[in-house]
Request: fold
Amino acid sequence: MPDLITHTFAAYLLTRTASQRSFRYLFYLGTILPDILSRPIYILAPRWYAYTIAIHTPVFIALTIFLLSEWFAADLRALARKALFLGATLHFSLDIMQRHLGGGYLWLYPFSWRTFELGWFGPEATVGWVPVWIGLVVVIEARLHLKK
Ligand SMILES: [Zn+2]
Reply:
């Protein structure tokens, strides 16, 4: 996985001009949702990996989004579902670009255990770029606020 800051930075770039603040924040949440659900379990209980590997899959995240969005007020439900789904789609779009030494993500689980990746960069390759992403956000936000 690219790190959460890289995921969030990509979400920031895509939603920066979105006028609806709630859409933007839910998009951010959708962007990090697969990792914030799966990583703590992978880290705290690595022996359960074979049983928890399905958490970081499109089907599991889609089901989670449908359940999660039901907790929103009726007038926000469709927006929450859409923003979370689009954010998660961005997340998986970045994840599929990387290469793993071992098995990759199970994109088609539970229909298939096959995995595939584009192999453009390693899982830790984006960490070195985090200061750049943060600096770019600061510069972009400063310019936007100075114009006002
Ligand atoms: Zn991920």
